Amino acid sequence: MGSTASGKNGTWRNWGGTVSARPAREVTPASVEELSAAVRRAAEDGLTVKAVGTGHSFTSIAATDGVLIRPQLLTGIRDIDRESMTVTVEAGTPLKRLNLALAREGLSLTNMGDIMEQTVSGATSTGTHGTGRESASIAAQIKGLELVTADGSVLNCSEKENPEVFAAARIGLGALGIVTALTFAVEPLFLLTAREEPMPLDQVLADFDALWAENEHFEFYWFPHTGSTNTKRNNRSAGPRKPVGQVAGWFEDEFLSNGVFQAAQWAGRAVPRTIPAIAKVSSRALSARTYTDIPYRVYTSPRRVRFVEMEYAVPRAAVTGALRELRAMVERSPLRISFPVEVRTAPADDITLSTASGRDTAYIAVHMVKGTPYQGYFTAAERIFTAHEGRPHWGKIHTRDAEYFAGVYPRFAEFTALRDRLDPDRLFQNDYLRRVLGA
């Protein structure tokens, strides 16, 4: 468990350093039965309950002053079913461990996000996603899940069993119960060829529809204060496998992306006016490269520079307009932004509170280095995103509340009604859920 999310003397902290909490007690259950007992005991003691993963959410979605459930003993693969091509995994399993184990079995998830430190339940419950023309978020690949509800009972959910719970609990925000196991659709291990190349922002915006349509997975990073982007296209490949060479891999991923990047961030923090110049150098330091490898080695990369992030999902048709507005806002403001803006896509899905629920989606993520004042930038960006009926990522910084969400999620009331049924006494409540779901 990348246990960055812990602190001294009973204080829990998240990875980004934006949230801390002091739970009344911590429980590390070794079985679903022990977890159920802990939930029932909390209810008897009048304490709320929250399960945490690795603390990669920037919001206080997992914070509690009640009972904190740590999932690190609920890990590992329960079952691989080659007939139905599914794998059932314990909720506390880190994505990294799942990806490695599946690859050894000659299997893979279809799509994933760009880091793999999180637990499977934390990643899916907050709607973690990568980029894809047809393939959606990690949660959209769930075929079944096991949920401990407020009375301590265990619900099995799928399209056939408790389908109305399944529709919502795949991205359940921790509001409906505690997920103890997940069954994912998998497929035979395949190869992806990644093509990374710099491209002017104006060209990316002009050709966005074509870039999206011609690639299974398209994403790009724009460097504010410059007209430059780095694009990444991942497509399935017949091979052969040609991984990034180790020296090139170290130089480009560790030294350039993490090392020089870290140094640039420090310089920018010390002397903000140097940021536009640094950004121009950073954006030029990237050269085109192509490599072919198994999926998790292409989709994911280490992130060693600590940052805070806001990400909004907008209708895919609105993305180029929103980005032009974001660029104009940065140009006319005194802001100095040293971190690239990340743009990805997802097809519409059928999960109640998925950021891509019912609409083809593009994601725009803005970041700032941990410890820099981010409010001015994020507030201005959020104003642009919400004007496009944006839906914020549940685990990233935003200021929206239940009233707003009722307007941008057509099925919002369906989720809150289910929560009333499954958790009438609000055992799984915290301040964040009170804000985003209403009291």
Overview of the molecule:
The protein has an 8-stranded antiparallel β-sheet with strand order 16-13-15-14-18-19-17-20, sandwiched between helices. The protein has a 5-stranded antiparallel β-sheet with strand order 6-7-11-9-10. It has a 3-stranded parallel β-sheet with strand order 3-5-4, with helices on one face. The two termini are 32 Å apart. The longest helix has 25 residues. The chain contains 14 helices and 20 strands. It is an alpha+beta fold. Helices cover 32% and strands 24% of the residues. α7 packs antiparallel against α8 and α10 packs antiparallel against α11.
Fraction of helical residues: 25-40%
- Enumerate the strands of the largest sheet in spatial order, edge to edge or round the barrel: 16-13-15-14-18-19-17-20
Shape: globular
- Strand fraction: 15-25%
Mean pLDDT: 92
Helix and strand composition category: alpha+beta
Enumerate the spans where pLDDT stays under 50 for 5 or more consecutive residues.
Answer: 1-7
Distance between the first and last residues' Cα? 32 Å
Tally of separate helices: 14
Question: How many strand segments?
Answer: 20
Q: Largest beta sheet, briefly?
A: 8 strands, antiparallel
**Quaternary form:** single chain
Radius of gyration, whole Å:
21 Å
